[in-house]
Amino acid sequence: MPRPASRPDGGDGPRPDGGAPLRIGRLARAHGLKGELEVRLDWPDSRALLEAKRVLLSRPDGDSAAYVIASTRSTGKGILLRLEGVGDRDAAEALCGSTVSVGRADLPPLEEGEYYLCDLVGLEVSGPSGPFGRVLEIQMYPSVDAIVIEAPDGARYEQPLLAEWLERVDVPGGGIVLRSLDGLLEVPGPPRTEAGAAGAPPDREGTPRSPSTPKPRAGR
Description:
The protein is mainly beta. It has two helices and 15 strands. 4% of the residues lie in helices and 39% in strands.
């Protein structure tokens, strides 16, 4: 989570809706001479930035600040964004590489069964045989999004977010239930403990209940 920073519009913090902001993309490059920035969206069809009034920018060095949006317009590669207080190309280039987040109040309401990817971090993950680990982070690929699960012994696994592997995603309840552990792929992580096998898939059997189909959203 980006640490708080003063807003250029004189506000007290970067969260106009009072909640955790959601990442929707990245500032790829400056455009033109008047301070416009090209935003590469995490989800190409997202319209959240076109409807938002403010954004939180988090730089690679850890600094963050919120800006009032002066204008936005769609292009074939993403969205061109102009921010109040960023009036020339030099100022725009200084912000390139920053991630772009918006407040939840600026996003369309979630439909039943939908969730935001960032809300999965920290959830407990269970399989057919019981607790398995917790969600450490999200990996976003061109064809599928995946959660990285850390097992109690420190081993890490990626699980694609596909309905065939997911029994239930319950963000309010704090948990994810997998239909089976067949979709897990072990990935590099910290050295494992002596209980090395504890993080391996303990049971690949089980008959799952009829699942609700999850619909992940990455800040639409």
